[in-house]
């Protein structure tokens, strides 16, 4: 995504660079989780991160290193543990980071209030936006989305019903949905900021 512009360097040679797109749909950061919960409450599975457009350079830099890849994972999943086998690859020109969740305690609460505890996907730089004084200037508009498939053991009691939330206050949008399909939770969440300057009127939407 974005535009390629051309300039002359100090030697008079032509070089190109890409500037971020001003469309949020071109700068999309996706986390896709495929997880399963054992009858003993242990969670395993894989997580795939796909930073498109300006997210790629923002998270990984121009020269991708192993340290940058792990740093990106931890900046997107605060407090993450029980993970490993972090891998980076390019798929049709788009970077992908994949890692495994291994033997993670997957339930919390007691009695009838037991809940599944998923890896917490919350980009730290997005969470902090609401802490700044307006106007807040962004490097690029963006979308952050999360897709989850969580399989439960067959002896699990089905207590979850389907639901959906949609908030569309113009340029800052949020939606989520979840449904239960025979011991499998399917959930999606999507957050979009389709502007590069957040005014005082819009900033409360981030808090």
What does this protein structure show overall?
- By secondary structure, the protein is mainly beta.
- The chain is built from three helices and 14 strands.
- The chain has helices at residues 54-60, 66-76, 124-127; strands at 3-8, 14-19, 28-37, 42-51, 83-91, 94-105, 107-108, 115-116, 136-137, 142-151, 163-167, 172-180, 184-193, 197-198.
- An eight-stranded mixed beta sheet has the order 5-6-4-3-10-13-12-11. A two-stranded antiparallel sheet has the order 1-2. Strands 7-8 form a two-stranded antiparallel ribbon.
- A hairpin with a 2-residue loop joins strand 5 and strand 6 (94-105).
- The protein is globular, with a radius of gyration of 20 Å.
Question: Largest sheet, if any?
Answer: 8 strands, mixed
Helix- and strand-based class? mainly beta
Assembly form of the protein: single chain
Q: What general outline do the C-alpha atoms trace?
A: globular
Please mark out the parts with pLDDT under 50 across 5 or more consecutive residues, or reply none: 1-8
* Number of DSSP strand runs: 14
Please report the distance between the alpha carbons of the first and last residues: 29 Å
Evaluate the radius of gyration: 20 Å
Which terms would index this structure?
eight-stranded mixed β-sheet; two-stranded antiparallel sheet; 3 helices; globular; disordered N terminus
Give me a quick take on this structure.
The chain is mainly beta.
Topology:
Elements: E1 3-8, E2 14-19, E3 28-37, E4 42-51, H1 54-60, H2 66-76, E5 83-91, E6 94-105, E7 107-108, E8 115-116, H3 124-127, E9 136-137, E10 142-151, E11 163-167, E12 172-180, E13 184-193, E14 197-198
Parallel strand pairs: 3-10
Antiparallel strand pairs: 1-2, 3-4, 4-6, 5-6, 7-8, 9-14, 10-13, 11-12, 12-13
